[in-house]
Amino acid sequence: MKSKTTNTILLCLLCIELIGIFFTPRHCYAQYFNTGFWIRRPMITKVQTSSIGSLGSISVGTTVTLSFTTPPKVGNHIIVAFWTWGNNVSSWNPNAVSDSYLNSYSLVNQKPIIGTDSYNTAIYYGRVSNTGSPFNVTINHSATPSVIEAVAIEYSGLAAINPISSLSALGTNPSANCGPITTTKKIGLLVSVINSTTGANPATVTPPSEFSSIHSQLNGQTYEAGGLSEKIVTTTGTYNATWTITSGQWYCVFAAFKAQE
């Protein structure tokens, strides 16, 4: 009798697991050793996005504000990316990102080019410890860019401590390939941002294969062309992010984030 009851319980547990697997994306699971059972893993999910600059050239002074429609959830992360152009910019502030609830943001990497024509491409991230409404993310520059494209994205499922597993920043070469970058965890988030530096900005900026475009500026000479894309990966390995840009030099930052264990 005891054996029959035990078998019934095990069968019920197996049914629950199978239902979960059926209704949950595959990359949320990992096989537990060689037992044949599956255990639920946190899924990295894009919750909401705020962007500015998609309509073209913006004179922003030293501050740009991105507003979220809904207050971000405590424990989630906000990734901020931007690319800029300005005349005679002497430096860029590496502590450029803050928000209205005093959460802390860290620079992942940036590619500043200083000169008569100055450019910057950067990614920041921060964990939401405090939240409320309105929730605004602010980019503060040590200089005044003439044009900026900026995006703030809320993600759930990223690791609470040291979420960055690896990162890379590239300069110019004939192929717009950001990478390689190597992940150390099976489930992770790849983020790539690219900036075109030519005065005759390309008519098209196509994201890398198997990446999802989050934000892009595709216009011609008036605006600063570039883009931001993402990819959720489910295996460890070495990855590239190869953009298609029809003309001009480019600068790219490429980062990998670990999923919550």
Give me a quick take on this structure.
By secondary structure, this protein is mainly β.
Summarize the structure in words.
- By secondary structure, this protein is mainly beta.
- The protein folds into two domains: 2-40, no CATH class; 45-258, no CATH class.
- Helix content is 8%, strand content 48%.
- The strands form six sheets. A five-stranded antiparallel beta sheet has the order 3-10-5-8-7, with no helix packed on it. Strands 11-19-13-16-15 form a five-stranded antiparallel beta sheet, with no helix packed on it. A three-stranded antiparallel beta sheet has the order 4-9-6, with no helix packed on it.
- A hairpin with an 8-residue loop joins strand 15 and strand 16.
- The longest helix has 22 residues, at 2-23.
- It is globular and about 80 Å long.
- The two termini are 39 Å apart.
- Residues 18-39 and 54-60 have low confidence and may be disordered.
